[in-house]
Amino acid sequence: MTHPAPIRRDHLSTALRLAADGLPVLPLRQGKVPFGNCPACAHNACGGRPHMKTPGPCTCPAPCHGWAAATTDTHTINSPAWARAWRDAAAVAYHPGGAGLTIVDLDTPDAVAWAVRTLPATRSVATTRGQHWIYRGAMQSVNAVRDGVDIKSTMSYARWLGPGTGTMTELPEDVHALAVRKPPTARLAPCAIVMPARAAEGACRHRTPAFLDRGIAMAEQRITEASTGIHATVYRTFLAVLSAHGRCGCLTDAHVARLFTAAQAKGESPRHCTDAWTNARTRLGL
Questions:
Q1: What predicted TM-score, i.e. pTM, was given to this entire model?
Q2: CA atoms of 179 and 137, how far apart (whole Å)
Q3: Confidence (pLDDT) at 112
Q4: What is the DSSP code string of 139-194?
């Protein structure tokens, strides 16, 4: 007879202690990722929007939906529905925003040095690559606000690595300012191509305002109306725009900014936008 693996009592006891202190907790699998949705919520059946990290209107008792599973309810944490997760858990995470906290995640020594120079001192926790600086106050979570720096607060989770050292201070305006997304400044270098003879008069058809503007507007609409598969939709849309307009250098920073803004409004990070744009250019040989 096969018996289930024992529950990781160290993780469970840590979770119960944190929950008692007001930190909403959840178990993490190996690789620092949440447990997947339960069968009732698989394939977004409950109406959640994974690309926006938003739970659906389900009443599922299992620890699914990522950050939204985080709870301070000890009965839930100790429930049979969570028992399997604690048996397989590799770590404990918490939802900073749910506890009214914000973490500035500093992933490199350079990022830590920047924070020491720039941000008010607060409680810090050592990580495998850098530090977590924890402030009192919640805000929007944003990735890649600068090199090696992410902000984790609402709609996000962080691995519990211990209480840290230092006195926690109020969330400063300097951190709020990091979350203000600026339009990208990517520019396409013109490519030398062989044009049809009738174009020798010097007019590129893509420079016709109606043609180019219609193409960008359609691309924005395609991204905005996407309800699932946002990553794939953004990549395919970037690919289509570059296929039509990318070889003659007629795209401007303003056009690229419009596409990035539409993608970020659907939850894409600046880093994801840049990666999708770069991958599309690479595929087309631009």
A1: 0.61
A2: 14
A3: 96
A4: ---EEEEETTEEEEBTB--EE-----BS--EEPPHHHHHHT-PPPP---PPP---P
